[in-house]
Amino acid sequence: MNRRHALILAAGALSGLPVLAASPAPQFEVPDTRMQKRRLSEFRGKTVVLEWTAASCPFVRAQYESGVMPELQRWAAAQGIVWLSVISTHPSRRDYLPPDKADALHRGRSGAPAALLMDSAGTMGRAYGAVVTPHMFIVGPKGDLVYSGAISDNPTMSAKEARASRNYVRAALDDLAAGRKVATPSTRPFGCTIAYSGD
To answer: pTM for the whole thing?
Structure first.
């Protein structure tokens, strides 16, 4: 089994299940890289995108190297959508980065979220059922989870293929903006298993 398949299948082996779309989004209180506490409640009335990310995951890297993720983040901000990137890697894990280095990495790959959250204890990630990076969630203005799953329809580590993929997150945000019910509220996420403590 090659590395790509091992990483994809790792997501299916986990017992934790993501919060189902159309249910109330779990509240959270997590520091960002500037050590400011961020809460879901501060964005009440707005659409919020939650993107679980990691330092070395090749699936994440493809989305950034292709420009897909940064462009979507900037587009979302222009629409008044709040984009929060989340790192749930525990400090004991090899892929962990302290806040200053995580912030520098994200800026270096042209990341443009409203904030980068440091969920080192994994409380937020486990509450949402985030299992891989990138794992995407969208919280609607009423506080309900309206999308949960993959960034796109192509589980690729190729920047070129990432660019050509159908983006589920953009499609869901377009549905919300048009006042439509999200056509595809959930998909199976793909990527690298999140390195929670105790796993």
So the answer is: 0.90
